[in-house]
Amino acid sequence: MRTAKIVPLVTSLRSRLSQLPVWTARAYSTKYPQEIQLDGQSYKTDEWTNVPPYILELTKRQLHQNPNHPIGILRDLIQSNFKDLGYTFYNNFKPAVTTVENFDILGFPQDHPGRSKSDTYYLNKTHLLRTHTSAHEHECFLDCKTPGYFITADVYRRDEIDRTHYPAFHQMEGARIWSKDTPNFEEQLVKDIESIPKTNIIVEDPVRDAPTHPGNPKQDYMTEKQAQLISIHLKKTIEFLVHNVFETARESAKLAGSTEPYLNEPLKVRWVEAYFPWTSPSFEIEVWWKGEWLECCGSGIVNQQVLLNAGLTDDKLGWAFGIGLDRIAMLLFGIPDIRLFWSLDERFSLQFQQGKIATFVPYSKYPGIDRDISFWLPGDSVLHENDVMEYVRSHAGDLAESVVLIDEFVHPKTGKKSQCYRINYQSMDRSLTRDEINVIHSKVENDLVDNFDVSIR
Ligand code: DAH
């Protein structure tokens, strides 16, 4: 099972490198207006532009700001647990950022796959929809007057769509900074660690006392001891966060009448080593939940260069982490399909209220309609399921339930490739008519013919 929504960018992209689609230049030639308006700014489109209108629409929703929506309720819950612990909460950042903010400032190499058009929504060559909340670290490091901060925001990645994947989702970034010039700095770090509320979770962490080694190195400007204490502060903070959220999930499942055995087991987490371009050492936490390890949150000690890029002085050091909210909210509220978060149906929205973790009560689904689309691809051109999904969604919006490549073969004589995709159209809110689906489906066919030169079979 893939877990792209909460898997840190770097790991998920690494594993997906092999499947990167090859875009043809033609695919972008005609589709976009000269300018895209977003949050009062105008962006001149160019050959990098690939953000479709339905994604721009999603940027208006700001689910994390809605106090009665599961994502907003989860944000509130985490914030309330950290209220008196020295953090500032930023929840209003707009989704358009520069490539500098999203990548360069964090030290992403120029050829990093996260920069590719197949994974990221570009407004144009210089601006994109943030792919992670880390894009705002630099401005918060500079602006923040408390020792730490949290940023919650909607983030965007081109992806397939199914029950656990959606191109828009939510992350919460946390960070904490100290000055090395603090009197008795290491003693202060110990005190700060002791002031993190205790948890009773079971922690597997083979490198707790010696978190750095050449493969996950300490930065030169800090001592071994400082790296160790800051790593412990980071890990205990995340354990506290995870403890609160999963204990709440457990309580709400019990209240809803569940008697499953996992609800009586103590919460177990494990730390694994990771790699991110802007932290060293780097770690990830995984939570044992319902019989599997859930990858939850990437983290690490922030590279000094990132802090200097943000305008901080060279005595500063600290940690950062990023956690995906949608998968956790699905567990917390018993929501079976990530797309429900975006539903405008009152049968969904009226089930949730500020401050309450209610278990979602499913309502009937309407039957779907399957349509196949088969074609020959020209020459050596390559078409990816994500590309087809994007065309389907630009005409069908949320009526596109799934797009699956069900057949592919190469003609032995002509060498031409044939593909067949099955598209399932379905509405969360109503029955669809064959006529409306026919109209949508032929628009998809026309787009594929126009942009990829396929011949429909
Ligand atoms: N931005 C990362 C992602 O989207 C998550 C992350 C990892 C954030 C490490 C951090 C960090 O601040 O230190 O996958």
TrEMBL record:
It is found in: Mitochondrion matrix. Its main location: mitochondrion. It is an enzyme of class 6 (ligase). The keyword Lipoprotein does not apply. Residues 364-457 form the FDX-ACB domain. GO terms for cellular component: mitochondrial matrix. The keyword Transit peptide applies. It comes from the Eukaryota. Its EC number is 6.1.1.20. It catalyses: tRNA(Phe) + L-phenylalanine + ATP = L-phenylalanyl-tRNA(Phe) + AMP + diphosphate + H(+). Keywords: Aminoacyl-tRNA synthetase, ATP-binding, Ligase, Mitochondrion, Nucleotide-binding, Protein biosynthesis, Transit peptide. Residues 153-362 form the Aminoacyl-transfer RNA synthetases class-II family profile domain. PROSITE patterns: AA_TRNA_LIGASE_II, FDX_ACB. One of its GO terms (biological process) is mitochondrial phenylalanyl-tRNA aminoacylation. GO terms for molecular function: ATP binding; phenylalanine-tRNA ligase activity; tRNA binding. Is responsible for the charging of tRNA(Phe) with phenylalanine in mitochondrial translation. Belongs to the class-II aminoacyl-tRNA synthetase family. This is Phenylalanine--tRNA ligase, mitochondrial.
